[in-house]
Amino acid sequence: MKAIPALVCPSCKAKLDRIDKVTFRCNSCCRTYPIVDDIAMFAATDDFYEEKFTDTVYESRNTRLFEMLHYFFYREKTFFKKWIPRNCTLLDLACGGGKELFSKLANITVGIDISKRATENAKIIYSLVTQGSIMELPFEAEMFDVVVTSHVIGHIPFDQKEFVLNEIFRVLKPGGRTIHVIETDSLHPMVKLGKSYPHLYRLNFIDRYGHYGLELASAAISRFQSVGFELISHKRMDAGIAPIWYYEQYFKGTELEEQFSSIRWRIILSQWLHCHKYPNFLYGVIYGLYHDTLEQRMAPLDRSMHIAVCFRKPFRTTTTS
């Protein structure tokens, strides 16, 4: 049975002592950190994320069927299942309320999130959760077999990305994998249309979700490689035909809905599908098949609105004299 990773000071990485039921203290720099509801608190909470992305994602009993049918909403789970080794020690960065999939695949599952509410939910299914910043991880070096994020990297501002990737590299074991679904900037015509209305793009593409660090897929991959990671696999997402509900998500109630009939009918169709279970399911299956075949072969990488990527931390090399 693997041991749950011990916590260290996120600032100086020295060991922590639990001096009482509600306090950790660093052996080196003497900083203290509160423990609230058995969760170590290493940073101030963020009001934006305290209200968003805090629910636990549980697995559906139909997961296997939907994966076999290439159902649209299961493409990310299929990628994670393919590349996360079983019985590993896994760290979920910006974990939200946690994902049951990760806890099922891993032997030890650890989560960290800036939201206290999220960590309270994740604690139910994870081995250990802490509240804190992913720029300063409270874990020793080379503790994890796998580090994952799901829809996180696009939230990280550009001036903080290098800190986060270096922390991932530090806590990952040599030969370990880091696996991500990343929101990206895009050369997709739908995104270009949104950008032609700067106020709309800022409101619906950036501010609503906190996407302050979007960059093209090729740039995101290069950023990981510049830290020292080796690319194992990547998949385009939403690089070809955009899912019809994106038009409702980004353009409903805007001047574009009024101005363009092509957008208006897509919004109407998206709303109709949401109200009709079986046509919606069929659309998901067809789109999932398209995603796994034509989209991967034909769509340019930098038209992706998301990418799924898996990198490996190289093993140490030794030199002989």
Structure in a nutshell:
By secondary structure, the protein is of the alpha/beta class. The protein contains 13 helices and eleven strands. The protein has an eleven-stranded mixed β-sheet, sandwiched between helices.
Describe this structure in words.
The mean pLDDT is 94. This protein folds into 2 domains: 43-240 and 300-312, Rossmann fold (3-Layer(aba) Sandwich), CATH 3.40.50; 241-298, no CATH class. Helix 10 crosses helix 12 (261-274). It is globular, with a radius of gyration of 21 Å. The protein contains 13 helices and 11 strands. Strand 8 (144-150), helix 6 (158-171) and strand 9 (172-183) form a beta-alpha-beta unit. By secondary structure, the chain is an alpha/beta fold. It has an 11-stranded mixed sheet, with helices on both faces. It is 38% helix and 21% strand.
